[in-house]
Amino acid sequence: MIFISTIFSCKSQNSLVSIGYGVNLTGLERTWEFPEFDLGDLKKKLLILENNGVKEIRLPLSFNYHFESDPHFPKKIKRVIAFCSRRGLKLVLANFDHQLTEENADQQTNKIIDQWLILLDFLPKNAQNVYLEIVNEPTVSPTTWHRVSNQIISEIRKKNNAISIVVGASNANSMFELSRMEPYPFENLIYTFHYYEPYIFTHQGTSWTGDQHATVDIPYPYDERKMPNLSPKSKETAGEVNFRDYNKTGNLVAVEDKISQIAAWAKTHGVALWCTEYGVTVNADHDSRVNYLKDVGQILTKYAIPSFIWEWEGNFGVKGLIEISSK
């Protein structure tokens, strides 16, 4: 995968930050918004990203929702891939909302396999621009995930032994779980992790993560003079401990310490490694968001890890935060 170099022009700063990255083009995974797979609208968004120098796109999709609500879903995916191929865009198809649990692991695994096999019927055998991310952020136990993921990859390989497959670890694509894994016995795999450390900063004020992240106005990097008081809601939660330790976790050194470890794992095993999500909520202030994206992007680039910012538009959206232009 080519690592794109773009220029972030920060509204409140004079400096230009050069970062290599891809972007998550979100929306079609948001089942609670009943998203329509509008092919024309999606192509327009892809063109906007391309015009801003972005050539690598991760497309989160709720397979369960779109397979059930749109009989033309596989054909639309085929047309999206063809469109991206013509324009030289790399596309990651990421399977969200898979509903995989310990209780339904066998049944749901068969469903996930069936869905991928249906899509493979619509994809060219030698597609060079498309990557299949079999399951986003699995939360089943490591033992169950090892069994399940082996089944999914094996069945995909029986149908297509060349297409690139992206796979992460349990505990929601945890880099720590990934570092404990042994690589799978398959070719052309890309291992992925998500990076949102420290969560006390990146998820501040996000309602869906609970009271532990109720404290807002947390700066990045850590600056004692700018630190807010701990929210009363966060007391006696994990957020209280994370807030106390933020002076150790909220800086470039801590970012590199974590990412360097998973980079070392990939180097030891000789496998490809991506970070398919990193980002920070719009609840953080502008300068802190820019500082964080700069630091994480810098370290990912240092260790040659292709990465995808979460997300172009949405609760973590970078559109409007920074202007992007091709270098």
Automatic annotation (TrEMBL):
<comment type="similarity">
    <text>Belongs to the glycosyl hydrolase 5 (cellulase A) family.</text>
</comment>
<keyword id="KW-0119">Carbohydrate metabolism</keyword>
<dbReference type="Pfam" id="PF00150">
    <property type="entry name" value="Cellulase"/>
</dbReference>
<dbReference type="GO" id="GO:0016798">
    <property type="term" value="F:hydrolase activity, acting on glycosyl bonds"/>
</dbReference>
<feature type="domain" description="Glycoside hydrolase family 5">
    <location>
        <begin position="20"/>
        <end position="314"/>
    </location>
</feature>
<keyword id="KW-0378">Hydrolase</keyword>
<dbReference type="InterPro" id="IPR001547">
    <property type="entry name" value="Glyco_hydro_5"/>
</dbReference>
<keyword id="KW-0326">Glycosidase</keyword>
<keyword id="KW-0136">Cellulose degradation</keyword>
<protein>
    <submittedName>
        <fullName>Glycoside hydrolase family 5 protein</fullName>
        <ecNumber>3.2.1.-</ecNumber>
    </submittedName>
</protein>
<keyword id="KW-0624">Polysaccharide degradation</keyword>
<dbReference type="InterPro" id="IPR017853">
    <property type="entry name" value="GH"/>
</dbReference>
<dbReference type="InterPro" id="IPR050386">
    <property type="entry name" value="Glycosyl_hydrolase_5"/>
</dbReference>
